[in-house]
Specification:
This protein is of the alpha/beta class and 603 residues long. Helix content is 38%, strand content 10%. The strands form four sheets. It has an eight-stranded mixed beta sheet, sandwiched between helices. The protein has a two-stranded parallel ribbon with strand order 1-2. The longest helix has 32 residues. The radius of gyration is 48 Å and the shape is elongated.
């Protein structure tokens, strides 16, 4: 090996200084040196410049790697280290790319599948301040949305209603008891029922503004039916009242005077009117006229209801006198939970018809109340009002609820039952039914589903005071004022006419459910004279009906046709007959007196 080759080899490792020293030693020894021209140095390279310290460390590091790389174990170790480093680098890059896609998710809703980030090399070569600013802006604006969606978990599902899985059990098989009976009803606890009370009124379909007719000087004109209290709307006005519009003005009682209860008939004291206007939430109302029933005190009433619910009982002078004599009424005008309101100048001679005023026109007497619960005077309330409202209105998204009759579903059968029980003058009932029949009233059938009945049990009404439900009770009262006081006969006609113009309807629940929250009592132990003998306003005459209506003969039914036994049976519970050997007189039996009839053994 000559010096030139050694120099070349040493030069291949980059040691030019060592090569020059060797050549000088050979010249001093007199040896010939074969030189090979070296390639020109790269531009900027200075010959004879000492290498930097970093360059020496790098050269020594590479020297040791090359020295030991030839060994088998060291080479495998180096290969494993390099592979692990490459693997970790790939994981890091992949994780960084994935993180960048989640954070940089577009916040404007375009398709993510068509959006892809450019490669790292491209971004490194083509990066610019403009691109970086746009990316930073995009990340800044989308991070808030993403942080909200990630940091805030989805809202939990609403809790299941406690009564969601409740199933009405079949009635008990009791052959000895075949009449109506209460059935189980699932109520929420009072606290939960109060919490579910809607904050805003229910929507009123079509009708948004309802006002009422005021007439100081009434003229009957050519209309039939009506009264000084409810006015005398013509048949044309009646037809217009069923044309549901956004804003309407209709007859709704109290047509005279400055405000309901003040010189309108059915007059109330100013102190009572003021207290009634202060009722802004729920009102429970009832009425007793002609001292016909005994006051029933509500039971199972929560403290929240006692504090916030208004309990009003409307009575006449006769009933007030009885309460004062029995020491039930004092100067506080209260009997238990009931605030007693004395009504002056009753508009009708019939106590039943007077009772229809607070029953159907509570929204006029309590202008600021949101909900009302009407119960007849003979009923005892045994469930909290908030629980009743939640069960029959709020849970059903309804604004009017009433129970259906436990036995009859057809208006025609209800009319025949009223005539058989002498509930009203038969001729007047026939006139009313024929009038509705001419307007399209048909017997109830399954074709009317989902309507389940045409006959209500009207002793309980649960309602929300919104324009459409107020209109319904106004028009229902007008039918009662025009025809008979049997409101079961006119209910379906008013309901169906409003339902034909709107999507509003009535929640008709089971009669056994009604009997769950009210206990039905009997009227006082006084048998009244037959209804046909009452001095009431005669029904509308036949000759004032439209000419297309039939004209049945209107003679009053003879008194002989009225069965005294049937009247007694409708007022008192039926007692099983004794065996023939026990049919003997007993001093323990008592007697009741019926006006116009002989003394009859009540047992």
């Amino acid at each position: 090996m000559n010096g030139g080759s050694l120099g070349m080899r040493s030069g291949s490792y980059g040691s030019l200084l060592q090569n020059q020293i060797q050549q000088q030693q050979q010249l001093q020894n007199g040896g010939a040196v074969q030189t090979t021209p070296l390639p020109p140095p790269p531009p900027g390279y200075v010959i004879g410049r000492k290498p930097t310290k970093m360059f020496k460390e790098k050269e020594s590091f590479l020297y040791w790697i090359c020295k030991f790389a030839g060994r088998k174990k060291v080479g495998m170790l180096l290969l494993c280290i390099i592979s692990a480093a490459v693997f970790l680098w790939v994981l890091y890059v992949g994780k960084g790319d994935a993180r960048e896609v989640v954070v940089g998710r577009p916040a404007f809703g375009y398709d993510e599948s068509s959006y892809r980030e450019p490669p790292d090399e491209y971004r490194m070569k083509n990066s610019s301040p403009v691109i970086s600013e746009s990316v930073a802006y995009r990340l800044k604006n989308s991070s808030a949305v993403i942080s909200e969606s990630v940091a805030q978990p989805p809202p939990p599902p609403p809790p299941r209603h406690l009564c969601e899985s409740f199933v009405l059990p079949p009635p008990p098989a009791d052959k000895k008891r075949t009449g109506p009976r209460p059935c189980p009803v699932c109520y929420l606890p009072v606290e939960e029922a109060v919490a579910l009370m809607p904050k805003d009124p229910s929507p009123s379909p079509v009708l948004n503004n309802l006002t009422y007719v005021y007439e100081e000087n009434l003229t009957k004109g050519d209309s039939f039916g009506g009264s000084e209290f409810g006015g005398y709307p013509s048949l044309e006005q009646r037809a217009n009242s069923y044309d549901i519009r956004e804003s309407m003005t209709v007859h709704c009682g109290f047509v005279r005077g400055t405000k309901p209860g003040r010189q309108t008939g059915f007059n109330l004291d100013d102190s009572d009117l003021f207290e009634m206007e202060q009722c802004h939430g729920v009102v429970v109302a009832s009425a007793i006229f002609a001292n016909y029933d005994a006051i029933q005190q509500p039971k199972n009433i929560s403290d929240a209801a006692k504090e916030n619910v208004c309990f009003y009982m409307f009575v006449d002078k006769e009933t007030e006198t009885y309460l004062k004599k029995s020491d039930d009424l004092d100067n506080s005008k209260r009997v238990g939970l009931w605030r007693i309101v004395v009504v002056h100048n009753l508009p009708y001679n019939d106590a039943r018809r007077n009772g229809k005023v607070p029953k159907l026109l509570l929204h006029r007497m309590f202008p600021n109340a949101r909900y009302s619960l009407w119960i007849d005077g003979k009923l005892e309330l045994v469930v909290d009002p908030y629980q009743i409202l939640e069960r029959f209105l709020w849970r059903k998204n309804a604004s009017f609820a009433i129970s259906r009759h436990y036995r009859r579903f057809d208006v025609f059968k209800e009319a025949e039952a009223n005539k058989a029980a002498a509930k009203y003058d038969n001729a007047s009932i026939d006139i009313q039914i024929e009038f509705y029949k001419s307007e399209g009233l048909t017997p109830y059938s399954e074709a009317k589903l989902p309507i389940t009945s045409d006959v209500p049990e009207g002793c309980v009404i649960v309602r929300e005071h919104i324009p459409i439900s107020n209109l319904f009770t106004c028009l229902w009262f007008n039918e009662v004022d025009r025809f008979t006081s049997r409101d079961q006969l006119s209910f379906s006609t008013v309901r169906d006419k409003i339902r034909a113009k709107t999507n509003w309807t009535v929640n008709m629940f089971l009669d056994c459910e009604r009997r769950n929250f009210v206990v039905q009592g009997y009227h006082k132990d006084v048998v009244r004279p037959p209804p046909v003998g009452l001095a009431i306003k005669p029904p509308p005459s036949v000759n004032k009906l439209p000419e297309s209506q039939p004209q049945p003969p209107p003679p009053p039914p003879p008194v002989a046709e009225i069965s005294t036994a049937s009247v007694l049976n409708s007022q008192i519970p039926r007692v099983p007959a004794k065996r023939s050997r026990d049919r003997r007189s007993s001093s323990r039996r008592h007697r009741k007196v019926v006006v116009g009839a002989k003394a009859i053994d009540s047992s």
